[in-house]
Amino acid sequence: MKELKFRVWDRIQEKMLIPQAISFDTHSSVPFAVSVPGKSWEQIGKFQLLQWTGLSDQNGKDVYEGDLVKISSVIYKIIWNEMLAAFELIEQGSSNRCDLSTVPTGFVIGNEFQ
């Protein structure tokens, strides 16, 4: 089974956190609450849930949805494409796309939130 990892962007405190637990609705599989270090359960609306792509960059850093990745001097953002049910790389400032398999040749330079 593929390992699933998440991180969350706290929209109120404006910082990235690693959740201790995520609670999903049993009927719709939609997340509805998150537990983060130092706090009990909080509604998901306070957070942006970001999933790990399953890939690492050339430095071995895990790559998540929302990350900015530099590949051959071009910066791409990792997004989740609902229609394809897959992660994609979108070139910043254009609509050009790049194959996700190129991530290991680039490196994470930040994320869309920080």
UniProtKB/TrEMBL annotation:
InterPro entries per the record? Answer: YopX-like_C (IPR023385), YopX_protein (IPR019096)
**What residue stretch is flagged as signal peptide?**
none
Indicate the segments forming the YopX protein domain, all copies: 5-112
Could you tell me what this protein is called?
YopX protein domain-containing protein
Q: What species is given as this protein's source?
A: Desulfosporosinus fructosivorans
